Amino acid sequence: MKSIFTLMAIILSSGFVFPQSGINLQELECEMLENPLGIDVVQPRLSWKIETDKSQVIQEAYHIMVASSREKLQNNEADLWDSGKVKSDQSINITYNGKELDSKDKAFWKVKIWTNKGESDWSETNFWSMGILTYAEWKSTRWIGYNQLFPGESVSQFSRLSARYVRKNLELEKPIKEAKIYLMGMGLYELYINGNQIGDQVLAPVPTDYTKNVKYNVFDVTEELSEGKNVIGTILGNGRYFAMRQEYKPYKIKNFGFPKMAMQLVVEYEDGSSETIKTDESWKFTANGPIRANNEYDGETYDARMEIPGWNTVEFDDSDWMNLMWVQEPGGFYEGQMTPNMKVKDTVMPTSVNKKDDGYILDMGQNMVGWLQIKVNGKRGDTIKMKFAESLKEDGTLYTANLRDARVTDHYILKGDGTETWEPKFVYHGFRFVKITGLNSKPEIKDFIGKVVYDDMKTVGEFESSDPIMNQVYENAFWGIRGNYKGMPIDCPQRNERQPWLGDRTTGAYGESFLFDHQTLYSKWLDDIKYSQTLDGGIPDVAPAFWRYYGDGVTWQGTYITVADMLYRQYGDVSGIRKHYPYIKRWVKYMEANYLKDDLMTKDKYGDWCVPPESLEIIRAQDPELLTDGDVLSSAFYYYLLNLMEKFAGLIDAEEQDIAYYQDLSERVKTAFNEKYLDQSKLVYANNTVTANVLPLAFGMVPEEHEQQVFENMTREIEVNKDSHISTGVVGTQFLMRTLTEFGRPDLAFTLASNNTYPSWGYMAENGATTIWELWNGNTADPEMNSQNHVMLLGDLMIWYYEDMAGIKSDPENPGFKKILMEPHFDAGLDYVNASYDSSYGEIKSHWEKNGKKLNWEITIPPNTSAKIKVPVSKISNVKLNNNQLESLAENVSVQEEHVIFELLSGEYTININ
C-alpha cells in the first residue's frame, strides 16, 4: 500500500536542531537536515514532521531504528537502538535511548509511524555524528598563536591588529575514506583546504566568554583532500577575543589576548587505518597580509597591494613565514557548537548614490546589519574610505554622534589592476547610509551590494493586516530582530556597545520566536548566562559578561527564567529548564538572602527603562510622576518569577520542598506588595503609572474583588491622561498589549499599535525608521543613547500580533503547539489578518477577513496537533465549518460566555461566522 505520509526527520539534541557547519542555504531551509556534525551530548533528541494531504491525523505510535552504518540501517540492523513500536503521539524531542556513543561515532536513523489514518513508510535515512566528548581527547592538541605586536599594530582604546594568515603543508599517503576537521579559531576564522574555502559561514565561531567555554566547529572535508600533498590554511581575525577596546577600562571591559587556534584533522583511510594531524609549532604564519586591521567597532582595513597570491595552495613557498608558538589555552571548556554560525542571509541593493562634499552618500533604503561589497577602479595605492551611519543630518551629511567612539569605517587600498571587488571578512556594521570617498569617478548603484548578516536560522512567521502602520512596524521589527542576532542576542549593531543585555530580551525572545526559529540561539544564551553566574548566585546584566556589570536587579536578571520558559512554551523543550534549574534556584535564593526586606524585593537598577520623557530632547524622564518605583518593579517581577519557578519544579519533579518554598515566598511577597502599594481608596498601585498597574494585573497579584476597578483605572490613565498613547518603558511594555486584551480592551491595544504620533511604534515608522528605535523619542533625544536599531521597546507587541490578532497561540498545558489556542480578537479594529507560523509540527495558518456583519476565517492545523477554536457569537447555528453544520465536523462544541467554542484536529478549514 502506498504511504500517505512523508516524514521529515530532524536531528535534535536537548531539543535543538543541529545543522552542519557549512551546510548550504537551501538544505538548511528544508525540514530534512543532512549531516549534523559534532554533537557533543550522548543522548541526542529526535523529531519529525508529518506531511500529508489527509485531515484529522493523529500519530498513535512510532518506531525508530538507529544503526552504525547506512548499510546496516537499510537492512534493518539497528545495532545502536531499536525502539520497537512505541505507542505514543509524541513526534518531537524523542530522547535517543540506545547504545552509548563515543566521540566521532556516526549514527544513522529512520522512523516510521502509525496514525489513525494508517501506517507510513520508513522515512528517508538521516544521520548525525558525535563530536569530541572529553577534554582528554583535546589535551595533546596544542594551541598555537603569536602573542606579540607587529609593526603598525597597537593596543589602545582604538586597537589595531592585522589578521594572522596560517598554513600547514601535509602529505596523505593513502586513499582517503573520510576526513573531518575540528576547529577552534579565536577570535574569528576562515578555513581553506588546497585553496578552497570550507563552508559559507561568516564571523565564526559564535562568541562566548572564552575563559568559561570555547566552541569548536566541525567540517567534513573528505572531498577537499586527496592522496598526496595538501595544505590547510586559516585566516584568524580578532573578533571578541582580541577585544575591541584592549586595555581600555579594564575594570569594565573583558579581553582575552591575541588570536590563536587549535585544530584536529582526523583522516580515515580506505585500508581501515587512521591519522590525526594536530596544530603544533611547525605551522607557519604571517601578519603581513592584506587585512591590516579588523575591529568590530572601528572597521576593517584591507590593502590589496599586500595580497599573497596562492598563500593557501600547495605550491606556495612559505619559507620566509614564521613558525607559530605554543600558547596558553583560553581556559574555557571545549564544546561542540550546537547553534548555526552566521551567514550572509540576504542582500540589499542601494536606492541612490549622490555626490556630497568630498565624496558620495550611498542610501541602502533600509537600516541593515552586515557590510558593503564594492566594485571599484583606480590607481595603485588609492584608498577607498567607507564610513557607515544610520541616518543623515539635515544638511545631508552623515549623522554619527549616536555611534559614540565607534569609528565604523572600512578602508580598501587598491592594487590598481582593473576592476576590483572587495568586502570585509571580520567586521559588521549597522547602517543605512555610507559615505564613500577616494573614488576617481562617479559610482553607479550596481557597484554596491549590501550583505545582510545574522545567524543561520529559518524565518518561520509571516504577518499582514489591514492596518498599514502595523504592517510597517512588523517589517521594522523583522529587520531589527534579525540584525541583532550575532551568535547571541545583542542590543544594537552600530555603536561601541553591541552587548547581550538580558533585559532587552526578557519578553522579547518570546515575541521573536514567532518570526525566527531561534531555539538553538537562545539555548546557547542560557548557557552563556549560566557560565557568567558568580559562585554565590549573582547574574550579570550582560551575558557573556564582556562588560563586568553585575547589577543584581530582577527585571534584567529574570530573563534567565523567562527565556527558559519561552523555550518550553514555544518548542516543547523542557531540557533547558532541567539543565538550568539548579543555577536559577541559586539566583532566587541569592536575591532573597541579600535584598528581600519585609517580604519585598528592594533591589532594582534600571527602573522602567526608557519611558517617554517629559521633554523630547532628553533621554530619561526626570518627573517622578512618570517613573515607577524600583521596588514596585522588582517585587512584582520577583513574584512572577517565583510562580514560574514553581511551575519549573513541577515539570522536572524537583523536591517537594522546592514547590512549597516558592509557594510560601510568592504569597508573602504578594501580601506585602498589596499592603504597601495598593491604594485601597483609589484602587491604583503606587503612583498610578501604567507600569505600576499593569504588572500586578498581568501577574495575578491584584485581589480578585479589585481587579476590574484597577484595570479600569489603568485604562483611564492611558486614555485620558496619556491621550491613548504609550507611557511605559522596557518593563511595562512587556505585558501591556496582552493585559489590555485579556481584560477586555483589545480596541485600546489596537489604538496603541496603530498610532503614528508620539510616542508610538508608528511614530518611529512615520519618521523614517525602518527598524525599531532605542527610545520613543529616538529622533530628537540627546545622541548619547538613541540607537536607531534596538528591539527592547517591542515589548509583547509581536506576541500580541500572533496570539491575539491572528489567534496562533500554544496552549500552556500542551506546549510546543501540540495544542493550539485560536481566538483572534476580531473586534479590536482590524478588517483582516493573514498570518502563518511554522511550528515544530508544521505550519499553522490563520487568515480572517470581515465582510459587513459576516466574517470568513481560513485556518490550517498541522498533523498530529489539535486546536481549540473560540469565536465571539452566542449561537452555534451562526457558525459554519467548511459549509457544513458545525457539529458535523467539530468536536466538543459548546457555548460559553457569548462564545462558541469547539475543537478541531489537523487539516484545512473555512469557518464562516454570522
From TrEMBL:
Reactions catalysed: Hydrolysis of terminal non-reducing alpha-L-rhamnose residues in alpha-L-rhamnosides
Coiled-coil stretches: none
Biological processes annotated in GO: carbohydrate metabolic process
Alpha-L-rhamnosidase six-hairpin glycosidase domain sequence ranges: 459-804
Signal sequence residues: 1-19
Ranges where the Alpha-L-rhamnosidase concanavalin-like domain occurs: 356-454
Keyword Hydrolase in record: yes
Domain Bacterial alpha-L-rhamnosidase N-terminal: start-end pairs: 174-345
EC main group: hydrolase
GO molecular function: alpha-L-rhamnosidase activity
Keywords, ordered alphabetically: Hydrolase, Signal
InterPro entries, A to Z: 6-hairpin_glycosidase_sf, 6hp_glycosidase-like_sf, Alpha_rhamnosid, Bac_rhamnosid6H, Bac_rhamnosid_C, Bac_rhamnosid_N, Ig-like_fold, Rhamnosid_concanavalin
EC number assigned by the record: 3.2.1.40
Domain (Alpha-L-rhamnosidase C-terminal): residue spans on this chain: 807-880
Keyword presence, Cytoplasm: no
PANTHER family to which the protein is assigned, alphabetical: ALPHA-RHAMNOSIDASE (EUROFUNG), ALPHA-RHAMNOSIDASE (EUROFUNG)-RELATED
Protein name: alpha-L-rhamnosidase
Organism: Zunongwangia mangrovi
